[in-house]
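Exercise 3.2. Students should predict the tertiary structure of the chain below and write it as structure tokens, then compare their answer with the key that follows.

Predict this chain's 3D structure.
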Amino acid sequence: MRLAAARRGNRWPNRLLLRLVEKVARVELPDVVRTMSYRSGFFGGPYTALVQAVMRGPSEWTVGERELLAAYTSYLNQCPY
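Answer key:
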């Protein structure tokens, strides 16, 4: 299910940017990209900071191992992103 508001974007600059990226890439953007751009101050910024801390912060695992785990988890969840 896709929310119409997240599909459109909440401000015209976001809508314009999403349409431009889709036209140039010739693909429909994944819903996670749309979600992060919708009210980015509420979700996008904090979520991006969390992902950066988890994926690039101090750890016994290398960055490659963390990326591989994230990709495999997405595969198991049938997530195209």
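Discussion points: The mean pLDDT is 83. Residues 4-76 form one domain.
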